[in-house]
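Retro notes, structure queue

What went well: the backlog is down to a handful. What didn't: a couple of records were mislabeled last round, so from now on we paste the full input next to the output in the thread. Example, using GTP cyclohydrolase II from Streptomyces aureoversilis:
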Amino acid sequence: MASERPGHFPDERGGATVRRTVVVPLDIGIGRPVEATVTSFDALSHSGEHVLIGMGTPGDIPLVRVHSECLTGDVFGSLRCDCGPQLREAQRRIHERGGALVYLRQEGRGIGLYNKIDTYALQDTGMDTFEANTALGFAPDARDYAVAAQMLQAAGIHRIDLLTNNSDKSEQLRRNGIEVVHEIPTETHANPHNIRYLAAKSTVTRHGLTLDAGRDVKEALS
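Corresponding output:
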């Protein structure tokens, strides 16, 4: 889909609607500012203040990353997860190819920040990230990507290549009217502090991760 300027998508009314779009220069780690558009929405099915960030010059099939908020990883650089590195990787790749970052306010896989901190305490006793969620009475993954589909449709984006290792995102987007042409994997951002977390994502929810760099998954799970 052709765009009028870098990061710009047309406003298509119907259902959820574009509330406002503004231009914001971003530092995405490439040595110079990048012009991006930040779009807010009305009438979304989820009450969070979600935004769509457009970057680059999108073609017919823009590259899209649907990223759920992780305050500890995205902002503070926590090494207990891979969220921050995935976000920064997505920004660079979307800028290079053209597309959009859909940023969803679904902290802690949908359970909120304080509850996520509680799961950290449970993980410190030996539970994996999904067991900790269920121990607190939540679903292993409570995220709902229907709102991401609404945002994309309101912005006139209907066919995408999705940057993800999580097939559940693709399935939910497809069920809600978005054509996912290709799933494009992100890099595996492993470190000694998140290897058990990544191993759980790989084995429990079948995330497409390659755990190597001298780290043994069986050892991480033992």
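Agreed that this is the format going forward. Reviewer comment attached to the example: The domain at 17-106+143-216 is CATH 3.40.50.10990 (Rossmann fold).
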